[in-house]
Design a protein that fits this description.
The complex is a heterodimer of chains A (171) and B (101).
Chain A (H helix, E strand, L loop, with lengths): L1 H22 L3 H21 L3 H25 L16 H24 L17 H10 L3 H22 L4
Helix pairs in contact in A: 1-2, 2-3
Chain B lengths: L4 H21 L3 H26 L3 H31 L13
Helix pairs in contact in B: 1-2, 2-3
The chains are: A mainly alpha (171), B mainly alpha (101).
């Protein structure tokens, strides 16, 4: 019961702040609502027993990425409102229609999936002596998923160099 | 009143759709990037909900990879926004049509 109340409260906050992110006029307010949204997503991860991911979510998203967004919003000082000029060929209704179609499709898949009987859960091979969320995730990262982990680190290095090259005035 | 993975899936679908609407309707490119972050968060919620249901940490490992890719995407995308703003003094995507046709 307590879990259900927590889930519905956190979900309502996540969806409400997400709607505010995309509807607010001021870009800075939008970024601040995005921080709140990320914090509630982290709370949802704690509810799901993924404490390590919750910490990563707060550190990387709410601490790192959002600060990057704030820097860009501060650096870009616009003389006229960013949405003043609109392309006459722009079809906003088509955008809503496509989004509604995707929502209908996802809802149909969810309804179908809830009817299908659940397959029996096969617990993952647990290495003896490893307990706790962080230990399990770290073990998997450094054994089965070592190569993807290294590729992710290379991706971050390339993105860092690319961002510096792009944002630099003159090379 | 049990919370099943279907609940998490519906929450994730709703968050995904909010992100899609933001991408399709807004013209401020910074807000479009934030909508993409919302979409990636929706994917992560799904991955972790099924990771919790299956008692298997693989979903959390993949969520870490998604976060890494989101960080890379935000860094490069915001660099592009800054470079574009320096040249054209705008962040409205309707005016970013240099390479459209």
């Amino acid at each position: 019961m307590g879990t259900a109340i927590a889930f519905y409260f956190i979900s309502a906050c996540i969806l409400g702040f997400a709607v505010l992110v995309i509807t607010t006029k001021e870009t800075v307010h939008s970024v601040l609502f995005l921080v709140l949204d990320f914090l509630f997503v982290a709370a949802l991860y704690v509810l799901l027993g993924a404490q390590f991911l919750a910490a990563i979510q707060i550190l990387v998203y709410a601490g790192g990425i959002v600060v990057l967004y704030l820097f860009v919003v501060m650096l870009v000082n616009l003389k006229r409102p960013p949405e003043a000029h609109s392309d006459p060929r722009r079809k906003t209704k088509l955008g809503f229609g496509l989004a509604a179609a995707v929502l209908a499709e996802l809802g149909a898949v969810a309804a179908y999936a809830s009817k299908v009987p659940a397959r029996p859960i096969v617990p993952a091979a647990v290495v003896p002596g490893i307990t706790g969320n962080t230990e399990v995730v770290g073990w998997m990262l450094y054994t089965s998923y070592l190569i993807p982990f290294e590729i992710a680190s290379m991706l971050l290095l390339v993105a860092m160099i690319g961002a510096i090259v792009l944002a630099k005035r003159e090379l | 009143m049990e919370i099943t993975p279907t609940h998490y899936m519906l929450l994730s679908a709703a968050l995904f759709i909010i992100g899609v609407v933001g991408v399709m309707v807004r013209r401020n490119i910074i807000i479009i990037f934030m909508s993409i972050e919302l979409i990636l968060n929706a994917v992560n919620i799904n991955l972790i909900a099924y990771s919790a249901q299956q008692q298997n940490a693989v979903g959390q490992v993949f969520a870490i990879f998604v976060i890494a890719v989101a960080a890379a995407e935000a860094a490069v995308g915001l660099g592009i926004i800054l470079a574009f703003y320096r040249n054209k003094e705008t962040i409205n995507i309707d005016e970013m049509n240099l390479m459209r046709w």
